[in-house]
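Hi R.,

As promised on Friday, here is the backbone we talked about, encoded as structure tokens. Could you run it through your design pipeline when you get a chance and send me back a sequence?
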């Protein structure tokens, strides 16, 4: 069964750091674009950062200069390094990835289960 498994969330004080991980497991041919989203209580799910297969990245304005998205293609894993965290970064963070399960097969979109990040003193 193909799935995205997240880890690394938790409680951190303002100004602190956290690193989220998201590993794609199962029978996968390759991983294309990957991304992180977040959803705060009562709000819509918003895009945080994306990383393409070639390593190019994009960020939401609210996290530029503080968050860094990266990937390890050998491990089918992406990361989100979050520094200088603010209370407004509090949300459930979801990873997302476009996966090809077999050569010449379609690209399928998958979501992780979400991990809670709480920034509070």
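Update: got your reply. Pasting your designed sequence below so it's all in one thread:
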């Amino acid at each position: 069964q193909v799935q995205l498994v997240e880890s690394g969330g938790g409680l951190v004080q303002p100004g602190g750091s956290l690193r989220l991980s998201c590993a794609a497991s199962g029978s996968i041919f390759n991983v294309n674009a990957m991304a992180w989203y977040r959803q705060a209580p009562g709000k819509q799910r918003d895009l945080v950062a994306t990383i393409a297969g070639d390593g190019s990245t994009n960020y939401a304005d609210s996290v530029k200069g503080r968050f860094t998205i990266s990937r390890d293609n050998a491990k089918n894993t992406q990361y989100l390094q979050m520094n200088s965290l603010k209370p407004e970064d509090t949300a459930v963070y979801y990873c997302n990835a476009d996966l090809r399960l077999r050569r010449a097969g379609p690209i399928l979109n998958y979501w992780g289960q979400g991990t809670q990040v709480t920034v509070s003193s």
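One thing I noticed while checking it: The longest strand covers residues 30-39.

Thanks again,
M.
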